[in-house]
Design a protein that fits this description.
2,3-Dihydroxybiphenyl 1,2-Dioxygenase, domain 1, 193 residues, 7-stranded mixed beta sheet, 7 helices, single chain
Length: 193
């Protein structure tokens, strides 16, 4: 009869498990913190990497990224929905900067939304977020400025694969020109740190 031996061994080894401390308040809190840490790790490892590109004209940028490069439109990542900057404890925008007294030439903006702009899927787990903010370049070139070299290299590879007219002006920091279908010159530049 092997069954009684198995039960004896189970109870013998079970006596070494701290069941009473696992079910205590402290044990439950430790288990909850462990589960929370695993959930955060899973969330952060599955969140897409986001590169931001500042452009001088959002409409021309939409024509370029959707029409010319045929990048698929991406959904806004979850951490942008929940105001990622505020969740890190950084203060919001001070209302005094939004008043008419801050600068009479600037039109005040009443709301800030981190999901503004355009979102495209660049690679499997990489997205680009296109926002306004760059100035027009020399001869009214449409400027696209990015801080990440690898992002611009990926865009350059896509330009080359589509056989678009382009000219590399500099490799470090990366700077190249592309002509779109409307003969607009788009300058893509890596910003210097």
């Amino acid at each position: 009869m092997m069954m009684p031996d198995l039960l004896v061994n189970f109870f013998f080894f079970g006596s070494f498990l701290p069941v009473d401390s696992l079910l205590s308040t402290q044990g439950i809190m430790v288990m909850l913190l462990g589960a929370y840490a695993i959930a955060m790790w899973m969330f952060l490892t599955s969140a897409p990497k986001v590169h931001t590109i500042m452009v001088s004209d959002l409409t021309a940028a939409k024509d370029f990224y959707e029409g010319l490069l045929d990048l698929p439109v991406a959904e806004v990542p979850l951490h942008y929905y929940y105001n990622y900057e505020q969740s890190l404890g950084t203060p919001g925008v001070d209302p005094i900067y939004l008043s008419n007294y801050a600068s009479p030439k600037l039109k005040p903006r009443t709301e800030f939304n981190s999901t503004d702009g355009l979102w495209y899927q660049l690679k499997k787990n990489t997205q680009i977020h296109i926002v306004t903010g760059a100035n027009f370049g020399h001869n009214n070139r449409h400027r696209h400025v990015c801080f990440d070299h690898a992002c611009l290299e990926t865009i350059l590879l896509r330009v080359q694969a589509r056989r678009l007219k382009y000219k590399i002006r500099r490799n470090k920091p990366l700077n190249f020109l592309v002509k779109d279908f409307e003969e607009r010159v788009i300058e893509l530049a890596e910003a210097n740190d």
